[in-house]
Amino acid sequence: MFQRSAVIAILTLVSMQAAYAAQKHECGSLENGFGPFDYRTATEKQRNTVEHYHFTENVETLRKGQSTTRIGGDISYTLQAFPNHPRALAAMAELARREKASQPKGSKYTISCWFERAMRFRPDDGMVRVVYGITLLKAGQRDQAIQELHKADAMLPDNANVNYNLGLAYLDAKDYDKALVHAKRAYELGFPLPGLRDRLQKAGKWQ
């Protein structure tokens, strides 16, 4: 006969699995007619097959759609083929901000679903965490952004972009010591934009 603690553990596991299954259902299956492919290891032919027709410069910069009048439709197609395409994720996030909508026009899923799909597809992809962290930071979800950027930092040690954005997040939190540590590291690693340093100087915290 199971002890009470064992029964609770089993029920908790079942509940977690059910929640995960529901989330998977809500954000769709990763199966796709073309792909899905890991963007990091995809061949040039696989990338070109999608990007040439769907993720052009006009689509990435949100000027106009390529295969459809809806920019979100082209980015959506790209992310179904390459769930962890970092630039496509960033473009979809920017489109959502521009439209002030959780699900941009033409997009098959919400922006949160696109990130869930990317992380479900390749949990070890640090660039997905970077883009997610930046997206959360722009949305004002600072604490969650810091958590995601630290996960990215563990996957991508010595990444200038990660450190720069962690610096921005800690600066927003007025944790100047940590902001300075990450700012120094970002510039040591060659990050080109002076914005973080300028803000720390304005606050009298740059050393």
Please work out how many helical segments DSSP would assign: 11
- Given helix and strand content, the structural type is mainly alpha
Order of helices and strands: HHHHHHHHHHH
Spatial extent as radius of gyration: 20 Å
Span between termini: 64 Å
Instruction: Give the total of beta strands.
Output: 0
Ranges where pLDDT stays below 50 over 5 or more residues in a row are: 4-22
Strand percent estimate: under 5%
Large-scale geometry: elongated
Number of domains: 2
Mean pLDDT: 90
Biggest sheet, open or closed, and with what strands and sense?
Answer: none
Topology:
Elements (H helix, E strand, L loop, with lengths): L3 H23 L17 H8 L5 H4 L10 H11 L4 H14 L11 H11 L4 H13 L3 H14 L4 H13 L3 H13 L6 H8 L5
Helix pairs in contact: 4-5, 5-7, 7-8, 7-9, 8-9, 9-10
Give keywords.
single chain; about 210 residues; 2 domains; Serine Threonine Protein Phosphatase 5, Tetratricopeptide repeat; mainly alpha
Description:
This protein is an all-alpha fold. It has 2 domains: 93 residues, no CATH class; 84 residues, Serine Threonine Protein Phosphatase 5, Tetratricopeptide repeat (Alpha Horseshoe). Helix 7 runs parallel beside helix 9, helix 8 packs antiparallel against helix 9 and helix 9 runs antiparallel to helix 10. It starts with a helix and ends in a 5-residue tail after the last helix. About 9% of the residues have low confidence.
Summarize the structure.
It is built from 11 helices and no strands.
